[in-house]
Amino acid sequence: MPRLRPFAVIVAALVLLCAGSRAADLRTHTILVVNQGNEAIFALRFGHDATPPVWSADVLPFDQVIDVSEGREISISVDPAECTADLQAGYRDAHAIVIKDVDLCTTDRVNFQH
């Protein structure tokens, strides 16, 4: 078993190196999220509306909402190799609206209508 230890150290170092370079590839992009609906938006997540759904943590600060007829700029970290995602707006009564296939690398504005 002592022979495996140096190999494990090398593998662990490579994993960390790859993870670090992957994190360095992330870009910050700002999107204006506009609420054109009739209820305030209380949560905003990005991810994929799959089965099961895979969503990020809420990117709206806890004490902020997007009121009706208002917008808020949201800055997110985006991997240029994976630009496309769905955006989900969550409302007070726990329902949500999803806009599919948003290009997070180039889209500057998203309008939610409810």
Describe this structure in words.
By secondary structure, the protein is an alpha+beta fold. It is built from one helix and seven strands; from the N terminus they run αβββββββ. The strands form two sheets. Strands 3-2-5-6 form a four-stranded antiparallel β-sheet, with no helix packed on it. A three-stranded mixed β-sheet has the order 4-1-7, with no helix packed on it. The protein is globular, with a radius of gyration of 19 Å. Mean pLDDT is 82; it is low at 1-21.
Layout of SSEs?
Blueprint: H1 4-24, E1 27-35, E2 41-48, E3 54-55, E4 71-78, E5 84-91, E6 96-103, E7 109-112
Parallel strand pairs: 1-7
Antiparallel strand pairs: 1-4, 2-3, 2-5, 5-6
Q: Which properties best describe this structure?
A:
single chain; 114 residues; alpha+beta; four-stranded antiparallel beta sheet; three-stranded mixed beta sheet; 7 strands; disordered N terminus
Number of β-strand runs:
7
Q: Indicate the proportion of strand residues.
A: 35-45%
What is the mean pLDDT? Answer: 82
**Straight-line N-to-C gap:** 62 Å
**Helical percentage:** 10-25%
Order of helical and strand elements = HEEEEEEE
Task: Determine Rg (CA atoms, Å).
Answer: 19 Å
Choose one word for the global shape. globular
Structural class by sheet pairing and helices? alpha+beta
Strand order of the largest sheet: 3-2-5-6
The quaternary structure here is single chain
- Helical segment tally? 1
Low-confidence residue ranges:
1-21
Largest sheet entry: 4 strands, antiparallel
